[in-house]
Amino acid sequence: MQNSVQEAIVSCVFIMVILYLLVVSIVLTFVRSFHISVGPLHFKARFRARKSYVSMPMKNNPKIRKAYIRYLIISALTALSIVGQLIVMQIGYPVEAAVVGCTLYGLEWWSAKAVYLLRDYWEKHDAKAAGLTLASKEVFKIRMTLYKSTIIGTTIMTLSFMIYMLNFGVYF
Predict the structure, then answer these.
(1) Could you tell me where the DSSP H helices lie in 31-61?
(2) pLDDT at residue number 166
(3) Rounded distance, CA 145 to CA 129, Å?
(4) Residue 171 pairs with which residues in a beta bridge?
(5) Cross-strand pairs, 34
(6) I need a labelling partner for 44 at 20 to 30 A (CA). Which of 51, 52, 54, 75 fits?
(7) DSSP state of 169
(8) Do the beta carbons of residue 76 and residue 130 sit within 8 Å?
(9) CA gap 118, 65 in Å, rounded
């Protein structure tokens, strides 16, 4: 009886976190850091605007360049580790996979300062010259809160899957 209740709780937490991440991912696609004055289907113009939003600060400031490169590398490793954790946990190392995953989530939280550095650069320089209009500070705060809540959500997902694997998986 106790095992089935524990299994149901852990499974519900895991599914609720996945649903939360899905909803937040959809919301984050519509909450932008900057706006441009072209239509939604002008993909080349949007790509050029995104490129100038990132590349101009990186050309002019080595601190932003290093922070943004770290951010990209850590984000890529974190994305790969989500799938890798599931595989490693099923092989029989759930604690080790969770430690590596949670460490990467902490590094991703820390590396998100690159986004703040980009925003600070554009607040101090003329964004209209690059064809951009920055979103308001409140929208930026909401965007970063949602982004960081996804990091917390993936941490909870990793820990709940580790608990599930320890109690009902390879060691059961």
Answers:
(1) 43-60
(2) 85
(3) 28
(4) none
(5) 134
(6) 75
(7) S
(8) no
(9) 10
